[in-house]
Amino acid sequence: MQTIADRLINTRQHIQKATVSAKRPEHSVQLLAVSKTKPVSDIQLAYEAGQRLFGENYIQEGVSKIQSLNSLTDIEWHMIGPIQSNKTKIVAEHFDWVQSVDRLKIARRLNDQRPADMPPLNVCIQLNIDEEDSKSGIKPEELPALVQEIVTMPRLVLRGLMAIPANNVTPAAQQETLATLQALYNDLASQFDSVDTLSVGMSNDMQAAIHYGSTMVRIGTAIFGARQ
Ligand SMILES: *Cc1c(COP(=O)(O)O)cnc(C)c1O
Questions:
Q1: What are the structural domains, with CATH classification, of the chain?
Q2: Are the C-beta atoms of 102 and 123 separated by less than 8 Å?
Q3: 32 lines ligand 1 (CB under 6 A)
């Protein structure tokens, strides 16, 4: 049976291969290990195998893991799930990153509630790039207005964009989506020095996402096994 350490090695190899085949610099794609629903002990095993970036979807669960593992000070915790406005305070007080900022109200509250003794909160704007009803995120045409607001907020640092492209689409449709996302990201990065992150690509579309400029892939099942 494969251990979490084995599966991390495999995942890193896949990322490495895709990066080389896309003719991109080595280490230009980071791995976010998505540990939602998995126990703290699994995160510890991944940590011992060298993993430092972890992603959580559910606020209470994520915060309780952050608190249990607070002695591991070099973990970077990323919130990647939807956030209701009455939950922003606890997110602002615990996470290092929020990748799922999808409206002005959430950004404002995170900015207001980020504690003064913590570094500014790193944020990505979540784009609903294929405009699917089932997914959160803003439409591409709403991006400039939200960006203009966020870059004025002193307790937030705009790091980039996050998206979950539709699956079960043709390769051509997938490529078109990824190319659109890459163009939006490049445009943003050319305007703001703080922007260095395009968070796109999961197990099934990682290779294509890396080809289209992803700088961070989010992988859960391939590292921790299937969820209940
Ligand atoms: C769950 C989740 C992932 C990881 O999904 P897997 O299929 O387990 O690799 C990545 N990104 C987001 C936003 C998720 O919710």
A1: 4-224 (3.20.20.10)
A2: no
A3: no
Tens digit of pLDDT at every position of the chain (228 positions): 799 999 999 999 999 999 999 999 999 999 999 999 999 999 999 999 999 999 999 999 999 999 999 999 999 999 999 999 999 999 999 999 999 999 999 999 999 999 999 999 999 999 999 888 888 999 999 999 999 999 999 999 999 999 999 988 899 999 999 999 999 999 999 999 999 999 999 988 999 999 999 999 999 999 999 998
Ligand 1 site, residue 80, Cβ cutoff 6 A = yes
Q: Are 106 and 88 in contact (CB under 8 A)?
A: yes
User: Which residue has the CA at smallest separation from atom 10 of ligand 1?
Assistant: 218
Mutate to test the pocket of ligand 1, among 61, 218, 227 (most ligand atoms within 8 A of CB): 218
pLDDT of residue 36: 97
Task: Check if 223 has its Cβ closer than 6 Å to any atom of ligand 1.
Answer: no
Residues with Cβ within 8 Å of residue 194, at least 6 apart in sequence: 157, 158, 159
| Residue of 37, 51, 54, 80 to mutate, ligand 1, most atoms within 8 A of C-beta | 80
